[in-house]
Amino acid sequence: MAVHEYKCPCCSGALAFDSSVQKLKCPFCDTEFEVEAVKAYDEDLKNEGTDNLDWDTDAGTQWTVDEATDLRSYICQSCGGEIVGDEYTAATDCPFCGNHAIIMQQFSGALKPDYVIPFKLDKEAAKAEYVKHLKGKFLLPKVFKDENHIDEIKGIYVPFWLFDSNADADIRFRATRTRAWSDSDYNYVETSYFSVYRAGYIGFDHVPVDGSTRMADDLMESVEPYNFSDAVEFQTAYLSGYFADKYDVSAEQSIGRANERIKTSTEDAFRDTVKGYATVTPEYSSVRLHDGKTKYAFYPVWLLNTTYKDEKFTFAMNGQTGKFVGNLPTDKGKFWKVAALITAVAGAVIYAGMWIAQLM
Amino acid sequence: MTKRIIAILFSVLLIVSVAVIPASAAGESVGYSYRFDDNANLLSDAEEQALNNTLYEVCAKCNCNIVFFTANDLYGATFTHTGTAQDYTQRYYETCCGVNTDGVVVGLVLSDEDGDRQVLVYGSGKCVKRLSDEESEDIRTDAINNHNPDSYGYYEFLNAIALGVKEAVPPHVKWYMLPFSFLIGFVIAMIILRILKSQLKSVKMERGAVNYVRPGSMNVTAARDTYLYSTVSRTARPKESSSSGGSSHSSGGGSYSGGGSKF
Predict the structure, then answer these.
(1) 3-class DSSP state of A147
(2) Which residues of B touch A340 (CB under 8 A)?
(3) Euclidean distance between CA atoms A165 and A288, whole angstroms
(4) Nearest CA to A70 among A87, A82, A84?
(5) Which of A8, B34, B217, B261 could bond A26 through an S-S bridge, CB–CB 3.0 to 4.6 Å?
């Protein structure tokens, strides 16, 4: 299979997209290029003919059927090394020369993304946010904080399905109002019940659903929201210097999650129009979607991995907004020591208070 | 960390000791007095002396004023009162010891406003908290049932009340309040730690898609609020009662706990 990388017009080094200047930059000669200029230059280079570095060799053993199904090998166009990925690898690094490689086949035909939000924040920003993420966490193990080592940091373009839709809604709530008064003998509470009906419509744009099973859905939803105004038409040049996977969850498979989110927010939006009641409980809801459209986009995510006590911890940072998330381990020893301490102090204070109340 | 926690635990024990030991050791009646006025002449001189000895011990143990009196009826008082045995007893105490001073007054009135025999036990000042209405009732009930003056004489009756006061009024916290206090402490600890632990969790699924609502796209085309029905629930208001536990109440002067029993 063919691998594509954008070469520097000055020194032929592999170009990488620099999020800070929003241009392609050569890491060897530091020359910056506009994405469009490099794309045009790349077309010219293609006309000169491309290298064919496929090798036909009898060395090695045959892959099993399962391995052959999952694995893909690509040839680095810089050094000729073999890059082994899987059927979803779309952009990666050559393990031999470190050059950035983009697997063009993953973007051919119907698989090509419609949009991409380019990285706005670089690896250093991800590291800084990670350090900030560890601060102020009382129950975080001290060793985890002090060692502060990160096994791996990767900038990844994650495939997302984006859902646009209009929603018509008919929703009925059961609502109550209460009124209280007293006389000399009794306290009275009057509860009035109402049937509250709301109908209308609402629109949603670019509701994202993670299209990769390799990315945890809760992790990907936690780094939201993304601002779609920064999205641009997809060009492979933006992938240079980052990793990327093509989707392995189809748009059809993602519809359920998109519907769930849209329905919840539609009900919430109409619930917010019901005012002046003590309680409001949904009784009936009908949400009908129409004019639904789906788009395929790559969104930027920095992934950081670290290991603590043989457990792997994964953190993610939104490559556009810098929102950083990731669950942290709990220092169980400290947890129970602090529990004992608070119990002892609070219990003693309460008991002493009872005695003081007797003495006062 | 461990050393620090041990140090704090020792401090806690010290706090408890400081609060509890002086309270337990309170046996001296500095500035407090006791008296017994047998206005109805129910006790012999020897009985009176014996009861005074008991009251001395009660005063020292309870660290408060102790006033016992007997009266044939509510007339001929040197102080003003509203004509009830309760008010008579409370004004009697205030005449002897002042308003809201720390003390217990026990009155035995042979003929109250209704012509009935009545015994009254009230706490004043800090004794309002120490002598609950229930404890006062227990003392009176025990004396009436087990040391009834018709069977045992008035000395035995009043002495039983004095011993009941000696048992109930010193500063005390029921034993089960100690584990109960630490149980509450544990609940507080879990609430605090739950908040601290939540800081470590930042990964969760989004609830909806509120960030992706198209601006200005929402339109409510129909809105109806229809009244269905009403229900009215009624709960009795708590009444102030002389037999309710732990409350303090006043009938014109200071605040008192306790009550009276006719027998």
Answers:
(1) helix
(2) 5, 9, 189
(3) 10
(4) A87
(5) A8
- Among the listed residues A244, A246, A257, A248, the one whose alpha carbon sits nearest the alpha carbon of residue A208: A257
Query: Which residues in chain B have Cβ-Cβ distances shorter than 8 Å to A334?
Result: 1
Question: Does this complex have an ipTM over 0.90?
Answer: no
In-domain check, residue B168? yes
- For Cα atoms B8, B14, B19, give the angle at the middle one, nearest 5 degrees: 130
pLDDT value at B26 more than 50? no
Predicted pLDDT at A184: 84
pLDDT grade, residue B75 (50/70/90)? confident
- Structural domain contains residue B161: yes
Indicate whether B183 belongs to any domain.
no
CB atoms within 10 A of CB B97: 22
Q: What pLDDT does residue B99 have?
A: 86
Report the C-alpha gap between B153 and B161 in whole angstroms.
13
Q: Which helix (H) or strand (E) holds A332?
A: helix A332-359
Lowest average pLDDT, out of A90-104, A237-251, A307-321, B61-75, goes to: A90-104
CA dihedral B70, B73, B78, B81 (to 10 degrees): 110
Cβ separation of B212 and A185 shorter than 8 Å?
Answer: no
> Cβ of B14 under 8 Å from any chain A Cβ?
no
d(C-alpha B61, C-alpha A266), whole Å:
71
Residue B52 reports pLDDT greater than 60: yes
Chain B residues whose CB is inside 8 A of the A191 CB are 230-233
B224 and A197: CB-CB below 8 Å?
yes
CB contact under 8 A, B189 and A339: yes
B211 touches chain A (CB under 8 A): yes
Residue among A269, A337, A357 whose CB faces B129 most closely: A357
Q: How confident is the model at residue B6 (pLDDT cuts 50, 70, 90)?
A: low
Between B222 and A14, name the one with better pLDDT. Answer: B222
Q: Which residues of B touch A224 (CB under 8 A)?
A: 206, 211
A200 with B208: Cβ contact below 8 A:
no
Q: Cβ separation of B208 and A262 shorter than 8 Å?
A: yes
Three-class secondary structure of residue A88 per DSSP? coil
Q: Contact, B64 vs B127, CB < 8 A?
A: yes
Within 8 A of A259 by CB-CB distance, chain B residues are none
Range of the domain at B43: 33-174+252-262
Q: Region B98-115: what's the mean pLDDT?
A: 89
Size of interface A-B (CB pairs under 8 A): 248
Q: What is the DSSP letter of A5?
A: -
pLDDT digits over A267-295, tens only?
999 999 999 999 999 999 999 998 889 99
In a domain, B22, yes or no: no
Number of structural domains found in chain B: 1
Percent of chain A with pLDDT over 70: 84
Find the CB nearest A273 among B1, B208, B223.
Answer: B223
Q: Which position has the higher pLDDT, A277 or A57?
A: A277
Q: Find the CATH number of the domain harbouring B123.
A: 3.10.310.50
